[in-house]
């Protein structure tokens, strides 16, 4: 996927102004930055949940800038949400079935296998709205994985998880196929450190820097962004 000239504003407030953003098969691309930096806005534009006010997005060589989110999902762009609330009236299993509806004939994994992967197999018949937060996040991930995405957009998947849940999440993400591209918006630097090979840092909607994960995490300007000048450790923790 290649996005160029993406710009988004709410009224007079420009919240994203990004010259280029590229993801290739197999990438593990983290997008980090302080609250309000425009990370979720970027993900929403890539997923089609928000329509780009200017700029262009291509995917597999095809222009998808005006394509709706559902079309993009069918084309292989899966996503999770910062505040997951997947189909509250459905059972956990039916949510995952919905996530994989366009792969009914040739699913790589059955819905039950996906639930097993994320540790929710014992909750298959429970109404999704009754799940505690960590389980709801895992269900959100299961729904995205059931769609067999080629590009997976993750919006703060570790937010609010316990240590044990975070470990499980890291195991799952670490086991994703190498052809799948992942874009990860995340505040937890240990999660970013474990997964990301490339990091883009957003600040006030613009790219502060980007590059190989080790180099960006060691960048004093990135540490200063999180802790203020002199904060050595912020991006490297
Ligand atoms: N629907 C909206 N209407 C008005 N302003 C909005 C709306 N959604 C987001 N914003 C503003 O856009 C800016 C970027 O928000 P965004 O959620 O993309 O940031 P973020 O980097 O994901 O932040 P966080 O880490 O806190 O989730 C913020 O200033 C936010 O208040």
From TrEMBL:
Keywords: ATP-binding, Nucleotide-binding, Transport
Molecular function GO terms recorded: ATP binding; ATP hydrolysis activity
PANTHER family for this protein: ABC TRANSPORTER ATP-BINDING PROTEIN, CONSERVED COMPONENT OF ABC TRANSPORTER FOR NATURAL AMINO ACIDS-RELATED
Domain of life: Bacteria
Cross-referenced InterPro entries: AAA+_ATPase (IPR003593), ABC_AA/LPS_Transport (IPR051120), ABC_transporter-like_ATP-bd (IPR003439), P-loop_NTPase (IPR027417)
Residue span(s) of domain ABC transporter: 1-229
GO CC entries: plasma membrane
The protein, known as: ATP-binding cassette domain-containing protein
Organism of this sequence: Micromonospora endolithica
């Amino acid at each position: 996927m290649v996005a160029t000239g993406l710009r988004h504003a709410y009224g007079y407030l420009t919240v994203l102004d990004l010259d280029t953003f590229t993801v290739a098969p197999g990438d593990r691309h983290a997008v980090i930055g302080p609250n309000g930096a425009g990370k979720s806005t970027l993900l929403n534009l890539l997923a089609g949940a928000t329509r780009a006010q200017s700029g262009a997005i291509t995917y597999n060589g095809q222009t998808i800038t005006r394509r709706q989110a559902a079309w993009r999902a069918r084309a292989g762009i899966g996503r999770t949400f910062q505040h997951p609330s997947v189909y509250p009236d459905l059972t956990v299993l039916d949510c995952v079935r919905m996530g994989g509806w366009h792969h009914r004939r040739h699913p790589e994994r059955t819905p039950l296998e996906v639930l097993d992967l994320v540790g929710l197999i014992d909750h298959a018949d429970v109404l999704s709205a009754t799940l505690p937060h960590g389980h709801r996040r895992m269900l959100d991930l299961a729904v995205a994985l059931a769609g067999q995405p080629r590009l997976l957009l993750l919006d703060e998947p570790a937010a609010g998880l316990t240590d044990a849940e975070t470990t499980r999440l890291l195991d799952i993400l670490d086991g994703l196929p190498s052809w799948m591209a992942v874009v990860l918006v995340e505040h937890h630097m240990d999660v970013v450190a474990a997964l990301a090979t490339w990091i883009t840092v957003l600040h006030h909607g613009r790219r502060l820097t980007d590059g190989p994960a080790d180099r960006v995490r060691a960048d004093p300007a990135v540490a200063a962004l999180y802790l203020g000048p002199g904060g050595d450790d912020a991006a490297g923790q």
